[in-house]
Amino acid sequence: MSTDTFEDELRALLRDTADAEGAAYVDVAPDAVLVRGRRVVRRRRAVAGVGIAAAAIVCLVGWSALGTGVDRTSTPAGTTSASPHGAVTAVLDTFSGLTDGTSGAELSIPGPRRVAVTVDPSRTPDLVYWDVAENGSRSMLGGSSLVGVDPLAATWGTAGDGSHVVVGVVPEQARAFSLVTPMRDAGGGMSTTVEKVLPGTGRKAFGTQFSDPSDPAAARHLVWWGVDGTVHDETGALLPSVALGDDDGTTVFLAAALDRMGTFAREGGASMMSLDSARNSSGRPVISTARGGAGSLTGLFVAVVPDGTTAGAMVPTKGTTVTRPLAVVDLPDTDRSVVWATYTSADAPGATYSSVTWTEPGGRQITERP
Question: What pTM does this model have?
Answer without folding.
Answer: 0.76
